[in-house]
Amino acid sequence: MADIVITEFMDEAAVARLSEAHDTLYDPKLVDDPVALHGLLASAKALVVRNRTQVREALLGMGPKLKVVGRLGVGLDNIDVEACRARSIKVIPATGANDLSVAEYVITAALMLLRGAWLRSEEVVGGAWPRQSMMGRELAGKTMGLVGYGSIAREVAWRAHMMGMSIVAYDPYLTADHPGWQIARNVSLDAVLELADVVSLHTPLTDATRNMINAESLAKMKSDAILVNAARGGIVDEAALAEALKGNRIGGAALDVFETEPLTSEAGAKFAGLSNLILTPHVAGVTEESNERVSHLIADKVLEVLGGGA
Q1: Known catalytic residue: 232?
Q2: Are residues 88 and 133 in the same domain?
Q3: Domain count for the chain
Q4: Which residues make beta-bridge pairs with 70?
Q5: Which one of 71, 154, 232, 293 is the catalytic residue?
Q6: Reported pTM
Q7: 106-123 pLDDT tens trace
Q8: Which of 17, 71, 249, 282 is catalytic?
Q9: Is the same domain home to 119 and 255?
Q10: Are 172 and 227 found together in one domain?
Q11: Distance (Å, rounded) from C-alpha 34 to C-alpha 30?
Q12: Same domain, 186 and 201
């Protein structure tokens, strides 16, 4: 039986480092087979997951020897942190390791939606020349609004600032003297929604943030504003967003995260036919570079707990 069980994809070199020090089972198919996973945890001292494996009381009860749960990412809404604490199990996220990739995703999504020229290649190949209908807008001179102003949001703010945008942000937990406020104006949530041309979400999913972006909050946004959610599914009321997009009450949206992942055909039906929407499968924080950083950071931390690290 394995000392370390890894249920979702991880950089192979990082897996090899863990395998050199401890008996390691790496099987990304386990995320879809909880029964098999439960049976493998009897001897496991470490469990490494991404966002789909649900680390709840039932699973923890199957791993009496668990010492550490490594999260290949930063959000912890799929992990019962209190239950882990009660069992003296360390929970280690890969804080900071994918900040750059998420920030680049936000800027890219905003550019694509503002320019409005994406997915038009077939028209051009077919001889059409729709220059006027493809006349988009620039980021420069616009306002970036950030809901939550943690490390990822500050990376977005810096890039947006360098591209000529003004920055407004809402974060009741960030101290007023934090250096991040040097390039961003500290405003209320309503002010972010009302002032921003691009609204990007950067909060965890909690009882307070669930459906934070709903019909009422969408109505406060500019009619041509862009919404980007690369934080957590559930922060946005997806049905309300679909209706706002269909009614042209906002300019467009990009969703990388969903209330149900993978997105079911039933849940996805509400988005059918929307040309001002980008949907991606929770990949904002996953690039070749960030996967290496995240994987090796978690490998380092797991080895610190179990022993066998450099």
Answers
A1: yes
A2: no
A3: 2
A4: 48, 92
A5: 232
A6: 0.92
A7: 999 999 999 987 778 888
A8: 282
A9: yes
A10: yes
A11: 6
A12: yes
